[in-house]
Q: What sequence folds into this?
C-alpha cells in the first residue's frame, strides 16, 4: 500500500450476538472488496452517550468525525452518498 494514501478508519457500534450487526459488517466488507480501510468495533452500551444516541439504531457505522455513514440494514447507495458529503 502506498504510504501517501489515507486509509479510512471507521467505528462500528453494535452489541454482542447481534446478527443484524454481523450481517451489516459482512455486507460492508463485501461492498468494499479489496479497498483498504480500518474498522474498529465497539459495544454501543460501553458509553452512555452512544447508548442514548444510537442504542435503538444499531448497527451504526461512524467516520472519524463521528458522522453516521450507515445504520440498520446496510445500504450501499446510502453509504456511498454519506462518504461523499
A:
Amino acid at each position: 500500500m502506498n504510504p501517501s494514501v489515507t486509509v479510512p478508519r471507521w467505528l462500528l457500534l453494535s452489541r454482542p450476538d447481534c446478527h443484524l450487526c454481523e450481517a451489516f459488517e459482512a455486507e460492508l466488507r463485501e461492498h468494499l472488496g479489496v479497498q483498504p480501510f480500518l474498522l474498529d468495533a465497539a459495544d454501543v452500551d460501553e458509553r452512555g452517550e452512544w447508548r442514548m444516541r444510537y442504542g435503538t439504531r444499531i448497527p451504526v457505522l461512524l467516520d472519524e468525525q463521528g458522522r453516521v455513514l450507515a445504520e440498520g440494514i446496510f445500504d450501499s447507495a446510502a453509504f456511498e452518498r454519506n462518504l461523499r458529503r
In short: The chain has three helices and four strands. The first helix runs from residue 19 to 32.
